[in-house]
Amino acid sequence: MSEQRGDNEQRGGNxxxxxxxxxxxxxxxxxxxxxxxxxxxxxxxxxxxxxxxPHVGATPSVTSWHLRHLAEHGLxxxxxxxxxxxxxxxxxxxxxxxxxxxxxxxxRDAGTLLSRVMFEQAEGLPGRWVRDVEPLLEDEWxxxxxxxxxxxxxxxxxxxxxxxxxxxxxxPYVLRKAHRESVPDxxxxxxxxxxxxxxxxxx
Length: 203
Hints:
Distance between the termini: 39 Å
Radius of gyration: 18 Å
Helix content: 40-55%
CATH topology: Arc Repressor Mutant, subunit A
Largest sheet: 3 strands, parallel
CATH superfamily: Winged helix-like DNA-binding domain superfamily/Winged helix DNA-binding domain
Strand content: 5-15%
Structural class: mainly alpha
Number of helices: 8
Order of helices and strands: EEHHEHHEEEHHHH
CATH class: Mainly Alpha
């Protein structure tokens, strides 16, 4: 979501300072409402269960329960904000998360489950952007926006190097995101990276 950003494998270190999930954490986050809650907090900043509820498809009480569950796995925490203290404020821990499915069955299954939920949640984003956002963009932003669909031939190690290089290029901009108000003419940009290796097909 954050992008709400979720990096579905750990390659070449952790230049964004993301929360690194254990298999238990992967399973905890592999729920559409929890993933939506975390995405909202990462993008919009601290919020309450009541304010989050309409955006994540749950009641305030259910949203509060999911927030406590996320907190148990180190993904959200109490936010220090000025308030009347009648509601509990939450914030995301880190700007994103990443995970590496382990070689054992439990870790592999947890990674697969979270990846599937992430893909399903991101599925409608490009269509909504084309419909609702792209027509409103100024020409200077429209020229750099859009879809890239490139097929290339690499080994598994080379693919890891490509992903690590992309993260190193993006890291300075990801890490300054919280301070974008001080950068003239800056705005949020969401980058969806789908790495889709082809499977070996028997002859």
